[in-house]
Amino acid sequence: MDALVIGAGPAGLMAAEALADAGRKVVVVEAKPSPARKFLMAGKSGLNITHSGPNFGAAFDAPWLAPMLHEFGPAQVQEWCHSLGQDLFTGSSGRVFPVAMKASPLLRAWLGRLAVAGVELRTRWRWTGFAGDDFTFDTPDGHVVVKPAVTVLALGGASWARLGSDAAWVPMLAGRGVAISPFQPANMGFGIGWSPHMARHFGQPVKAAALCLSNGRRERGEFIISSKGLEGGGIYAISRDLRQGATLHLDLMPDLPAEVIRSRLAKGRRGDSISARLRKLGLPPVAIALVQEWGRPLPDDLATLLKALPVPLTGPRPLDEAISSAGGIAQEALTDELQLRALPRIFACGEMLDWEAPTGGYLLTACLATGLWAGRAAAQV
Question: Among residues 330, 366, 326, which one has the least CA distance to residue 240?
Answer without folding.
Answer: 326
